[in-house]
Amino acid sequence: MRIAISFVGLSGGYLVADEAAGSAPGGNAKIMMGLLGLNVVVMVGVLVVLFLGNKKQQTTQTLDQVAAGSATPGAEAKPAEKGKEGEKGKEGEKGKEGGAAEADVHFFSVGDFTANLSGAASTHYVRISVNFEMSKDADEEEFKARRPQFRDKVISLLNSKKPTDLEGAEGRNFLKEEIKTAVNTFIQKGKVEGVYFSTFIIN
User: What whole-number distance in Å separates Cα of residue 166 and Cα of residue 158?
Assistant: First the structure.
């Protein structure tokens, strides 16, 4: 008995066995069953390979995805990065607001003063330049109109001081508080929030 086996094609999913002349019917049936089993195993293997290959292709990162910064297809930007960007933006806005608040300070120059200090036969005098820090609701026109009053009050306070009263930072700070309290008594709109000396010389 002689059998010729011919693989017609795997794509069709079947095998054909041509039996040689004079083959036994029982042996032919066994061979056919074996070939059919082998055919099924081969087809299952092909399907598994195709399935795995397709799955791998789906998970492979494309160049477009890399350029977009995605780790996997359809991935979105990390929330942490968005949060950092948001914080940076807020910090920048706060910095701008802080700079605007610091710049929103108004000063008023009262002018330069040279006044004699008190004391028996005192020949000492003080030379200072006085500037007021105005509150936000203060009226600059009123400050200009009251400049003579401001100057008179400052000169009166200076004339009442002895040289020892103005020595050191403590004495000067006390003078600043006295000037601020005195001028705020007659300002109608706003107030003086601080007094600054740009020049302070005792002779």
Answer: 9
pTM above 0.70, yes or no: no
Q: Across residues 136-144, what is the average pLDDT?
A: 95
Residue 201 zone, left/alpha/beta (φ > 0; ψ -120 to 50; rest): beta
**Strand 125-134 relative to strand 14-19, pairing:** unpaired
Domain ranges of the chain: 3-68, 103-202
Number of Cβ within 10 Å of residue 166's Cβ equals 19
- Cβ atoms of 188 and 145 closer than 8 Å: no
DSSP letters for 110-174: EEEEEEEPPSTT---EEEEEEEEEEPTT--HHHHHHTHHHHHHHHHHHHHT--GGGGSHHHHHHH
User: Can you tell me the mean pLDDT for 156-168?
Assistant: 92
Question: Rounded to an integer, what distance in angstroms lies between the CA atom of residue 32 and that of residue 160?
Answer: 130
Q: Shortest CA distance to 138 belongs to which of 72, 65, 189?
A: 189
Give Cα 161 to chain centroid, integer Å. Answer: 53
Indicate the angle between helix axes 147-159 and 168-183, nearest 10 degrees: 140
CATH class for the domain made up of 103-202: alpha beta
